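Sample intake sheet
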Amino acid sequence: MKMKIVVIGANAAGAKAAAKAKRLNPHAEITVVDRGSFISYGACGIPYYVADMVKDEKELMSTPVGVVRDPAFFRKVKGVEILTETEAVAIDRQNRKVSLLKVVSGETSFIEYDALILATGSSPVVPPLEGRATPGIITVKSMEDAILLKEQAVAGNRACVVGAGLIGLETVEALAQRGMQVTVVELCGQLLPGILDEEMANLLEQHIRSKGVTVMTSCRVSGFTGSGRVEQVATDQGEVTADLVVLAIGARPNVELARNAGLAIGTTGAIAVDNHLRTSDPAIYACGDCCETVNLVTGAPLYAPLGSTANKQGRVAAINATGGDAIFAGVLGTAILKVFDFGAGKSGLTEGAARAAGFTVETVLSPAPDRAHFYPAAKPIALKLVADAATGRLLGVQAVGPGAVDKRLDVAATAITFRATAEQVSHLDLAYAPPFSAAMDNLIVAADILKNKLSGHAKGVSPRQVKQMQDDGDDFLLLDVRSPAEHATMRLAGAKLVPLGALREKLETLPRDKEIVTFCKISLRGYEAQKILNAAGFTKVRFLDGGILTWPYGVET
């Protein structure tokens, strides 16, 4: 069927929508409008281009076989017309026309549509701070940003990255690899707010600090100063010297065109769409960073701008714009990044988000090698599971460490999507061989611990709770049940050492009138100690979730 489809935006969602629509309807006349010069590039690859892992910016704009995705490629290979440096300035919904403006020449025109797909993307958040226009202050969003940032990342100079989210931390690593002295400033009290809970974020922070990066959390930026170029970042914790500043505070959906056309804007501030990605106008669809979606765990509206989501939504929008019937159900907010030697990420709800959503939660911290402990390449990872205490349903997972965190996140994301319980996860038939996993995979072990806690057999307490007990001056005993050799190497301040093998013989040396928190390296022995003490009549015993390996608050050596 002959029809006119106009797509506004030529990156992840828009380019995917245009190509898919042409495949579905070869007779359709498809035009993509984009105000920029670069199209269909991998913005998620910008930090690796800045780090010089990707040598040429054209690699971010090419197919896997090295063909650059420029307007000529889309016209010749895809049969799609791309209008670059052309801004869509207004939508006439009644007459189904889009007014266009040539960015360079100022020439105006219009284009008609039968179906319109909005893929207008997002823009970096830039707060109205004093000195914001000072040269040397850069955002990380476009190819123009990437090229400028790479040019100005000079070895030996000082860089300040404002914002410790995904892009911020990836940029921290990129600049450090270029030989810069890097400070990261974050308004919240932890790294990766909304992605990791505090104790998991603190493990990542320790690693980043070990690489020579200065980390300033709970820190508010008030402005920038410099003579001809940025030199200082003013914060409530003092001045930060910087030759280069990167603003990575977050992204805001580009909704001006939609709002001016009278389309509904959702509670998240992004364009409201149904599960077919239709806007409030049935002839107009929206996909990618400009529209909101649904949280698959809570059912609430969610803004989750990610390239993976944008590509999937582009396909769904194209199917429906060409007369099909496809549904985009929502997302879990799954996210992952690499920072130096660590991977970190999450899927589903954090503990904080689960409690805010009204769930009564149970959590587990479980550190273990990512493959058989005797296999030479084994590396540790820490998992945190969040579950509904009433049903055992898995609500979220977090993973941090140098091991293969991606595998565990992906398996858990699948389980969360299908509303699996801890019981069901513990019985997953996962691939096992020593080079890939332990016989009991990390996720299986964590699910088993969760089952024990849900049933009341295991009583754990998180590192965050123990630290709070210490700070509040609570009268309790930290009981270290590791070996004397382990205790001598690394220990928690104030802990009493009673090796697990000697515990039954020394029960009378322990107080029965105060709470006891047992721990070991990963708390397997800590759990055993809890069961021994319970059997001996001790009623106030819990084990430290995750043991000393997930204790992020400093140890004695």
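Comment: Residues 341-455 form a domain with the FAD/NAD(P)-binding domain fold (CATH 3.50.50.60). The chain has a mean pLDDT of 94.
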